[in-house]
Write a structure and sequence with these properties.
The protein has a 3-stranded antiparallel beta sheet. The protein is built from 2 helices and 3 strands; from the N terminus they run βααββ. It is 39% helix and 26% strand. With 100 residues, it is of the alpha+beta class. α1 crosses α2. The two termini are 19 Å apart. The radius of gyration is 15 Å and the shape is globular.
Length: 100
């Protein structure tokens, strides 16, 4: 975890695994269609896509707190859907920090 500097604020957001998985599936579909339509586009790992989805949720939460965050960093993702299992009502917890 990053050093807790006075200018950085730490927040947490929780999303159901089902909602997180839905957004992850959408991103995977978009990424897959881009890879099939053009050469030279890299294929992202599932972990990289999970990180992108977590960052999108963190950015949405940050924008509701401040007008324009200068820097946003994902500190920890707890219980991300690493596999396509049905996790019911469990939560994905995203801890992030930002500087405004």
């Amino acid at each position: 975890m990053r050093e807790n500097l006075p200018s950085r604020k730490i927040q947490t957001v929780s999303i159901t695994v089902q909602k997180f998985q839905q957004r992850l599936d959408e991103l995977t579909t978009i990424n897959s269609s881009l890879n099939h339509s053009s050469e030279g586009v890299s294929v992202y790992s599932r972990l990289a896509l999970i990180h992108q989805v977590a960052k999108a949720y963190a950015l949405e939460a940050t924008i509701s707190l401040v007008d324009s965050p200068v820097e946003l960093a994902i500190e920890e993702i707890t219980n991300p859907p690493l596999y396509d299992f049905d996790n019911g009502d469990e939560l994905v917890v995203i801890q992030f920090s930002y500087k405004d």
